[in-house]
Amino acid sequence: MxxxxxxxxxxxxxxxxxxxxxxxxDVKAGKALVDKNCISCHASSYGGDGSGxxxxxxxxxxxxxxxxxxxxxxxxxxxxxxxxxxxxxxxxYLNQTYYKFDH
Length: 103
Hints:
This protein is an all-alpha fold. It is 75% helix and 0% strand. It has one domain. The radius of gyration is 14 Å and the shape is globular.
């Protein structure tokens, strides 16, 4: 039982950490990066304006920490060479616009 409580507390603290980083993020800069680098790929995969990837029923992003990790994965896989600040800006924009994880 103590292990479960520890794991739960750890997850909460990681989410709080990610949310604290969102507070310092530049959402406007995040939107610009999404518009420049993400929309065309997402639109080709999900149609329309590409936002279907964020609103799909079986979304694999469940937490703010997971959102940051997913943005980092896309950055790495696509070779975008974003800095950590850019990743956080994008995650903050996506959170504000689609995910609405608590801050």
